[in-house]
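Hi there,

I know you've been waiting on this one. I reran it after we fixed the sequence typo, so this is the corrected version. Both the input and the resulting structure follow.
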Amino acid sequence: MNSGKSTALLQAAHNYEERNQHVLLAKPAVDKKGDRNIVSRLGVTRAVDLLLTPDMDLRQSFWAIARERAAHGKPIACLLIDESQFLTEQQVDQSLELAVLDNIPVLAYGIRTDFQTKSFPGSRRLLEIAHSLEELKTICRCGRKAMFNGRLFDGRFVFDGEQVAIDGVEVTYESLCADCYFQEKAKA
């Protein structure tokens, strides 16, 4: 959280397009922030090409769009996925098939763990099969490296509940170092 993942994704898209290569942007539909857009905290917004529901086959959905774009002279050079922690394990495997079998680079941006420090199924599978990993760091309110995501409900930290509760009126998140996370957990 707050490490610039969406900004990095949008920069990667810009880098490809600056070289006259076309990208396809995707995100899981469960991410309601920005509706059908990828939204950077810096204010940069861009529409996604593929909004993935859990029942969708990522590889087939990619190729349905890629064939159409190629027919119009715009072949897809790369798939960029935001909020990849919300992918299903099958969709992560399908992204690996795209990368290996179809030779399409796939760059997936997401977080490892939820507010209870448990991995998301999509993140766990990505960690198991990714060709490479790059950690984007952010800092805690105390200035140390943030490792955990604290969930706030009505301004108070909570440590129980469903794994997925996208930002809303009452639910927000704060990036915390391990010390601050456990201090907040002790108060709860």
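Quick highlight: The radius of gyration is 17 Å.

Best,
R. S.
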